[in-house]
Input
Amino acid sequence: MKLHFNGSPNPTLGVELELQVIDPETKNLVSGAQQIMENADDDEHIKPELIQSTIELNTDVCANITAVTTDLTERLASLIKTCDKLGYELAGIGTHPFAKWDEQDISPRDRYHMLIDRCQWPARRLMIFGLHVHVGVQSGEKAITVFNALSNYLPHLLALSASSPFFDNIDTGLASTRVKIFETLPTAGLPYRLLNWGEFQRFINTLVNAKAIQSIQEVWWDIRPHPGFGTIEIRVCDGLSTLGEVFSVTALIQALVVWLCEQYDEGAYIPVHRHWIIRENKWRACRWSVDAEIIVDDHGNLKPIAEDIYELLEILEPIAKRLGSHKELMGIKDIVKDGPSYKRQRKIYAETGDFKKVMEANIKELRENIKVTA
Output
């Protein structure tokens, strides 16, 4: 089977938010996705996920970050309005602090039940919520080169988005518990290093023929080429609790992809860390987020990831100005300085000892600056 990469001439954006459906009284997860979709005005951009306490909100294909901002703000306002009428709330963080994974209802779609049947316990535990960002790329060959190079920066993106310190009524000690849960699936986690588009096609064809997957939809790597959309899809990020953080991380991802694409066009050598370095750096980001030290070379030399992020912003700043996303990109500095969501959650729990208070704060954060009309 030949995979055609439907390339995009411009670095378009598409953003997907996996949101928690919350009971207003208990602040626990509740199986409300189907009812929400049946009552929503804009059902084209709202999708179910594996468990019925998840609702996915998608943008259109957007030309730039300004379009993403308008699109997501309006669609989230409409979704919140529907949830208010039905008696639900929404939150955007990577895990729920006290919900039970074995009490979640599976959505009534064949592919989800096939996933459960094949993977069993690892799939049943997928009570997790992420942010996915698509960036348009011109060709499959370019996508593979940039895909390989982006692996260097997966720890940075995970560190900035870390929002899942709690799971099953405990503090896991991690900044991102979500990624460790996701990694238990057989086709999830860090991607393989690929030589070219042909090798990616062979990979997909082998697994499809072996009945390991039905399509690329079952390849849940932290980053993957998406042939149908003509994009690179970054999937490593935890769900973000505020739209401002979503816009900043999206701007960073777009600028990063454009920078690497331009290096490819110029024939520049794009260095990629050894797989074991990337793996260790991802672990450190999962554990310590923006407080981590990461490995920067084969000698094992270390650098604070926060420092590396600041240096990356200096490189990307001229590109962001061209893309019209400079303001959003500079919001990354606030995330590094003030800390991602996981720190705010831990602070609230340390002060109150109450996971419901943690959820109340996250629900409030998602609604910030959203005007819901009557």
Notes: The domain at 13-367 is CATH 3.30.590.20 (Creatine Kinase; Chain A, domain 2).
